[in-house]
Write a structure and sequence with these properties.
heterodimer, A: mainly alpha, two-stranded parallel ribbon, about 0% strand, globular, B: alpha+beta, GMP Synthetase, Chain A, domain 3, 3 strands, about 25% helix, MIP18 (chain B), FSCA_dom_sf (chain B), MMS19_C (chain A), nucleus (chain A)
């Protein structure tokens, strides 16, 4: 049996086997077992078959064999013969696709001569025109690939064909007429783009344009399981490239595009606008000069009457692209284009502020952005008129509208000409900036506006302020003296102006100063700093608080790194003066806060400060000495924990990134703080210190927090821990000092216990004599220690948690201390400002998940078994945990948690627990409403109940010691209403609909709440419930 | 091109010039004149406050003070309604203005009913949508105010060519009720309300 016979037999059964047959034939051809002549001879009978399918498959077999034959097996003569043979078969309708594949295979095995290409092309156009007569995509596709290949490799041959035969072009274009398949179209567009861009198309331009524009706009939508990966966007992109490929299309393209711009379909308009932008960039200035004004007249409507924001944006891009192209040509057409634009915009300015004056500002600033030339032309065309209108304007609103336009143009100017620190798009040597002609007038107008307009004209003054800031930024525009005037006005607004409304102007003035400091640091330091300093008293003996806002403003300046050091130095000096002058604690705290804020504002700069320099010597050491009272008497202000806390925080920020060496210099002084006394005479080692001397523990805590793990401690870690445990149980120490000592225990457990000893590190505390977990000895201070230890361990995901947590949970039923333990759970997972990665602590990424998994299931379990009077403790503990757990973790347990959460809403007097419960329920309703839909009735009733100050139903559960008369606070009422709103939005309609009438009625009570916050939530909630059954609210 | 709008180029007020309490509430005035910039330096959950001692701050100390419903609150309720023609709020188009809202206390000591009067100003005197806007404002207030308020919405005198007729329509309970049965009309009003905060 010959190969072709087997191929034809296999073809119907299994296409893969058939292909294998063809590959075998190729193999035999290669090693000479089969002669090419024999192979062709065997085909003869089938090529002449009556059955078209057989004929087609036979050619298909040949194509497959040829594609499988290695290079150089076939001689040039053989290939030529085969080419002629295959070409003679293309007339056979069913075989066209296979012929094309065979030809592609032959070409891959040896380059063709130009005559061959010409012949193939001519035969195709002669015998198979138009291609659309072949109904199968699979027939047409190989032909298109063949033509595409020839276009790519034999461009000259085809071009010669075009040049020598006048009717070739039209035939060639019409050959593809009627193609509809997206895969084929992608190739057709690629093929046609070659003649468009490279050939002289002359009279055929319109035909060629229509051949592609017929497909505009592309409305193709890929099938859901699109197997070919061609999107509408791919087609749109190729089509747009074709439209923009040659200026010869302009006479046809623009009328056609503008006609489609009137379409009601937003997608069509979007395609049109994108095509216009593309053509404007590609057609060149000569062509564009003919159409620029027509296009302006059409595009402006999209901006003046915005339908969709992105269409306006695209229209602006189009206008800018035209300006850019024209600016590369001569001045005449370029100015002819800008003239009507300026005229129209000037007209719209007349009745500012309107929608259209705002649109004009967009147009002007977008076009001005294009180049220095455009920018200057627009400035000289618009600003004189604008300033004239400004002078004669009768309302402030109009003046604001006008200035808004000017400010936008100045912004564009900065883009083109750059600011003081960077050059703009116009490069290093731009033409003279026309803005120079107007700078004085603009400066006067805006300085005057900002200075003299009444304070209630917020938006007008904001525009003036923004404009001044922009003027100060434009590269080489204003003199230092002028910028100085702006700075002076800004800081006098910050310092002297009466507060009004939201103080937007003051805010903007201070951030304006920061921006100017970025451009011109020395000017700000020279002008504004003395003014600020003059407002800060050395002492506040007169009791005025005016310094607060000055300090706030001044501290903000530290965010600009170029003035950061100066800010710090000035604040530090002021602080030392104030201390010397015995200023009040409030003032000292404010100054320290400002220093800390400033340091945080530019934390990078602090971190990079080299070693034991500037900040350590100048700030940390003097502060520590002051805190411990080394240098004479301790300042009065330093006897307060809050002051000492700030001192500690400042030291912490500076020290935590310093080297181990430097930190080790301080660590021996961790508790003595350079006081010059032996360590065993100070707390925590000496537990009989006078109370006021224990307060430095607050500072020590922050120092300990800043240490790296490698920094040596002043004594052995276990000794230190047990000293702290003892010390924290002293009754005479103040509550902050106790908290500080506990926090030190946490820090030590977290940082200084090596991982191998983690499992046993608690042993010394659990065993006698301390006996920390003894039920009999349990008291508040021991509970505190337990939580301090656990907090440190849980952040490290310590394995000891699995044995410690159950012991802790069992305390929830403790007859006297249960409630205290329950409250402690809120501290376990709460965010911490000391145990952080920045403070070199070990924070495991999944610690919340781990603790949740260890604690929550046990709580839900024990809750069910607990006696009624103990139940509230479990709910309180649960809410303390849930408060800090990310919702993704909670969602796993929603089904178990929902009943507990609902019962929490019945608690009386535990407002924080309620808040947490409603918060969690809100997240559940938001994220997985299905989980609680089953409780809809109970949930809605409880939320309604909590939405009014006095509960309607009897409280089933009251936390210990709380009187029945407590009312629901406003915060809880508002939260309940927010949650109830979500219920209406998230639950399925059929679930909530039955409750609608009742809820809407009940909510009238909350509408009359005495608190505004609650009323506003009630309004939102009620309107949401009112519309749930109305169609179209979920569009 | 939607050139069929009654007024295609209305004057627009800047939102920051409009009165509102909604934004004020976020920045309460502080006694020391500062903005509280430094408050965040020491987090509220700082270790210095002891969670084991029952905190006093949890119960709102100012819970007794009563914040009455006033004109500004009414303004906040209706100024964010969208204009049916433009994607802009009635406040920024100056269709509703704070000085044109009045609350009248109960007329007799036996009555609890207060009256809210809102006068709207159409952007142009022949605005065909004045009735729809008035209806939108009225529906909004009826949904958002407690039942002890009677709502009266009318077009400001002299700002509309047919203000008498429009007011008659808006004041007629039966006609308002009939209008609310009209699905197309309710759809327009719902879209106007969609932007309410």
């Amino acid at each position: 049996m010959s190969d072709i016979q087997r191929y034809l037999l296999d073809y119907d059964r299994n296409k893969q086997e058939a292909t294998a047959v063809a590959q075998q034939s190729a193999k035999r051809l290669e090693n000479g077992e089969l002669k090419l002549l024999t192979l062709i001879g065997e085909l003869g009978e089938y090529l002449n078959s009556e059955d078209a399918t057989v004929r087609s498959r036979t050619v298909g077999y040949l194509a497959e064999v040829l594609a499988a034959v290695p290079q150089k097996v076939l001689s040039l003569q053989q290939r030529n013969l085969l080419c002629d043979f295959v070409l003679s078969r293309i007339e056979d309708r069913g075989s066209l696709g296979s012929c094309a594949r065979a030809l592609i295979a032959l070409e891959e095995r040896g380059k063709w001569e130009n005559e061959r290409v010409t012949k193939i092309m001519e035969s195709l156009l002669e015998d198979t025109h138009p291609l659309s007569q072949y109904k199968l995509q699979s027939e047409r596709y190989p032909v298109l690939r063949l033509i595409d290949m020839m276009m790519a490799k034999y461009r000259d041959a085809l071009r010669n064909l075009h040049d020598s035969s006048p009717d070739f072009m039209s035939k060639f274009i019409l050959y593809f007429d009627g193609e509809k398949d997206p895969r084929n179209l992608m190739i057709v567009f690629a093929i046609l783009k070659v003649p468009m861009t490279e050939w002289s198309i002359g009279a055929d331009a319109q035909l060629l344009f229509d051949a592609v524009f017929n497909y505009f706009p592309i409305t193709f939508r890929p099938r859901p399981e699109d197997p070919y990966g061609i999107t509408a966007q791919d087609l749109k992109d190729r089509l747009r490239e074709c439209i923009a490929s040659t200026p010869d299309f302009a006479p046809y393209a623009f009328p056609a595009l503008l006609d489609k711009l009137d379409s009601t379909s937003m997608n069509t308009k979007r395609d049109v606008l994108q095509a216009i932008t593309a053509t404007a960039s590609e057609y060149g200035h000569q062509t564009m000069s003919l159409y620029s004004i027509t296009l302006w007249d059409a595009l402006k409507f999209e901006i003046l009457n915005v339908q969709e924001e992105d269409l306006a944006e695209e229209a602006l891009n189009g206008l800018a692209a035209i300006a850019k192209t024209l600016s590369q040509g001569t001045a005449g057409p370029f100015e002819a284009y800008l003239r009507p634009i300026m005229k129209e915009c000037n007209e719209h300015l007349e009745d500012a502020p309107t929608k259209q004056s705002q649109a004009s500002a967009r147009i002007l600033s977008k076009i001005a952005d294009v180049s220095a030339g455009v920018c200057n032309t627009l400035l000289s065309g618009i600003l004189p008129h604008l300033l004239r209108l400004f002078q004669t304007a009768d309302t402030i609103a109009k003046r604001r509208g006008l200035l808004e336009v000017m400010v936008q143009m100045i912004r564009a100017n900065i883009h083109v000409y750059g600011d003081w620190r960077s050059i703009g798009t116009a490069g290093e040597h731009p033409p003279v900036n026309t803005l120079i002609q107007f700078k004085d007038q603009a400066l006067e107008v805006m300085l005057n506006g900002l200075e003299t307009a009444p304070v209630k004209e917020v938006s007008f003054r904001m525009v003036c302020l923004d404009g001044l800031l922009r003027l100060a930024q434009v590269r080489e525009l204003l003199s230092d003296e002028d910028i100085g005037r702006i700075i002076e006005l800004f800081h006098s607004i910050v310092i002297h102006e009466e507060s009004y409304g939201k103080d937007e102007v003051k805010e903007a003035a201070i951030s304006g100063l920061v921006d100017i400091a970025h451009q011109k640091p020395s000017l700000v330091v020279d002008k504004a700093f003395p003014a600020f300093m003059a407002q800060l008293p050395d002492s506040d003996s007169d009791g005025s608080k005016g310094y607060v806002q000055i300090l706030e403003a001044f501290a903000k300046l530290a965010s600009e790194e170029r003035v950061f050091d100066t800010v710090i130095v000035r604040l530090k000096n002021k602080f030392h003066t104030a201390v010397k002058q015995n200023a009040s604690r409030t003032y000292i705290v404010a100054l320290l806060s400002a220093i800390l804020y400033a340091l945080n504002a530019n934390i990078g700069k602090v971190e990079q400060a080299p070693g034991a320099t500037l900040y350590y010597q100048d700030i940390v050491l003097p502060l520590l000495r002051m805190a411990s009272g080394t240098e004479g008497e301790r300042p009065k202000a330093f006897e307060d924990e809050r002051t000492l806390d700030l001192v500690g925080r400042i030291c912490n920020v500076i020290l935590r990134y310093q080297s181990v060496e430097l930190q080790s210099q301080i660590s021996p002084e961790l508790y003595t703080l350079f006081k010059g006394v032996p360590q065993d005479r100070v707390p925590p080692f000496n537990s009989s210190t006078p109370p006021e001397q224990t307060k430095t523990m607050v500072v020590s805590t922050h120092l300990l927090a800043s240490f790296r793990k490698e920094t040596a401690l002043p004594c052995e870690v276990q000794v230190l821990i047990s000293s702290l445990v003892d010390f924290s149980q002293q009754t005479y120490i103040s509550s902050p000092v106790r908290s500080a000592s506990l926090r030190q225990i946490s820090l030590l457990f977290n940082k200084y216990i090596p991982t191998p000893s983690l499992r046993t590190c608690m042993e010394p505390l659990i065993n006698p004599p301390v006996d920390l977990f003894s039920t009999e000895k349990l008291d508040p201070s021991r509970i505190r220690i337990i939580f301090a230890c656990l907090r440190a361990l849980l952040l490290r995901n310590s394995p000891s948690l699995s044995s410690l947590y159950p012991r802790l949970l069992s305390f929830l039923s403790h007859p006297t201390q249960g409630a205290t333990v329950a409250r402690g759970f809120a501290t376990l997972l709460q965010p911490d400002d000391l145990l952080t990665k920045q403070n070199h602590c070990q924070i495991s990424g999944l610690h919340k998940q781990k603790s949740f998994a260890l604690l929550v299931p046990s709580i839900t379990q024990s809750f069910r078994e607990a006696s009624p009077e103990m139940k509230p403790n479990y709910l309180i503990a649960l809410s303390g945990i849930l408060k800090w757990i990310p919702f993704e973790v909670v969602v796993e347990e929603v089904v178990q948690l929902a009943p507990l959460l609902l019962q929490s809403l019945d608690l009386r007097g535990e407002d924080l627990v309620k808040e947490a419960a409603i918060g969690t329920l809100t997240s559940i309703v938001q994220e997985s409403p299905k989980a609680v839909e089953g409780h809809a009735g109970a949930l809605i009733a409880r939320l309604l109940d909590n939405s009014t100050p006095s509960p309607s139903r009897n409280a089933p559960m009251a936390a210990a010691g709380v009187t029945e008369s407590t009312t629901t606070p406003a915060r809880v009422r508002a939260m309940a209403l927010v949650c109830l709103t979500l219920v209406a939005q998230k639950f399925r309609q059929e679930i909530v609909l039955p409750y609608r009438k009742q809820v809407v009625k009940m909510l009238t009570g909350a509408l009359d709440d005495k608190k505004r916050e609650v009323r506003s939530a009630a309004v939102k909630c009620r309107t949401t419930w009112i519309v749930i059954d109305e169609p179209g609210d979920d569009d | 091109m939607e050139l069929d709008k009654d007024n295609a180029n209305p004057t627009i007020l800047n939102p920051s010039d409009l009165p509102s309490r909604r934004r004020e509430s976020s920045v309460k005035k502080r006694e020391d004149g500062g903005t509280g910039l430094f408050d965040a330096l020491v987090p509220s959950y700082t270790y210095l406050s002891d969670p084991f001692e029952p905190s006093v701050s949890s119960c709102d100390s100012d819970d007794d003070s009563v914040e009455d419903i006033d004109e500004l609150e009414i303004y906040d309720l209706i100024s964010s309604i969208s204009d049916p023609e433009h994607p802009l709020s009635l406040g920024s188009l100056a269709v509703v203005n704070l000085p044109d809202i009045h609350i009248y206390p109960p007329t007799s000591p036996h009555s609890k009913i207060s009256t809210v009067v809102v006068e709207i100003t159409p952007t142009i005197t022949h605005c065909s949508l004045a009735t729809v806007i008035g209806l939108g404002v009225r529906v909004r207030l009826e949904q958002a105010l407690p039942p002890r308020f009677r709502v009266d919405v009318r077009v400001k005198k002299g700002t509309h060519s047919t203000d008498e007729a429009v007011n008659k329509q808006l004041g007629d309970k039966e006609r308002v009720a009939a209008a609310l049965e009209n699905d197309t009309l309710m759809d327009v009003i719902r879209r106007m309300h969609a932007t309410c905060e």
